[in-house]
Amino acid sequence: MLTNVTDIEILKNNLTFWDQISSEEQKMFIDNANIEKYEKDKIVYSTSEDCKGLTIVKTGNLRAYMLSESGKEITLYRLFENDSCIMTANCLLKNITFDMIIEAEKDSEIILIPFSVYGKLSSSNIYIQDFTNQLVSSRFSDVMWVMEQVVFMSFDKRLAIFLLEQSAIEGSDIINMTHENIAKNLGSAREVVSRMLKYFQSSDIVYVSRGNIEIKNRKKLMELAS
Amino acid sequence: MLTNVTDIEILKNNLTFWDQISSEEQKMFIDNANIEKYEKDKIVYSTSEDCKGLTIVKTGNLRAYMLSESGKEITLYRLFENDSCIMTANCLLKNITFDMIIEAEKDSEIILIPFSVYGKLSSSNIYIQDFTNQLVSSRFSDVMWVMEQVVFMSFDKRLAIFLLEQSAIEGSDIINMTHENIAKNLGSAREVVSRMLKYFQSSDIVYVSRGNIEIKNRKKLMELAS
Question: Would the CB atoms of B98 and A144 count as touching at under 8 Å?
Fold first, then answer.
């Protein structure tokens, strides 16, 4: 149950159908929603598990990725404060047949509306169903963007975009990530990332040290990314 | 308007919510649906155009693909007889922000329910909205499958799967496609396809001639694909 006024506000603002549901339905959402805390790197959800429910990010940020049998990863999308995600209630979406994992990229708090409640209200209310539909379409679009990058974009461009994104997330010119980790995010191999970073360094765009990448020439990096 | 009994049957069988809508709504679907014919290679729809409506494939088959600025393609999914597609009514899906093109891969006939009718009925009927939702999830899953292939799978495996699929579609061991065209389907380059086909040929898996690829050892090809 949500008791904190701020949490209830976040809930209301995220559930865009709030004014179109009855006060009983509103009460059900507030009474059954919970705050969950996840430390950095903890798994929030795997679609192969039981259905969790609708997730709203209160603080921190989450990363959704696909994992291959051999342990290769690719990042599908990220969720920041006030983002909602329906993939944590994937059993609601009858034809979703793929698996993905959602993990906390920083210490994060989420508001969770359990599937037992969200699923029930969604099946009887067209506004909630429309909201579900919009969330699925959003994630679909996110994934198509990644696909476009992977299929059509050169790797230097993808890496430049990734470094700029990561620097924005960390709010710093210094990115604390191993090459291995960057490779996982981009569905690539460590060697490929290291080679490209070396090339970026030789052009004075970044400075690579142990476990760190520092952006030295943001302008050039943005040119590469655009 | 659909007048042919077979066409009305196809409509009823595809719209899984048929028994849950009123007879007035059923009549609206039948009265407003139309048959459209497309010759092989004709564009059926581009999401950057105006909203068309719900598509049901009556005969033939359609291919949905993404196109890069430089003209590179990747196949996202295919639609066969009795498949429905909601991406031809993408304006209904508020958060779909990507573009794709759907073309006829063979001479094809579709049943089209215009957006003016489908959108209207969908916005007031929860069963139709649920159907929409399921169709979006299906396409999302299709695309995730392609993504998994592109990111995680070796190219020999992807090409083997493609040749087997194409042979099933054409109902023949001989695949009438240029290397250029195969590359487009797989978001790859012609040189890469030619090199891999040459390798397949050296292992007596296929025989490559001008504009043709003949499957010589289906068992080996299936081993590569699995």
Answer: yes
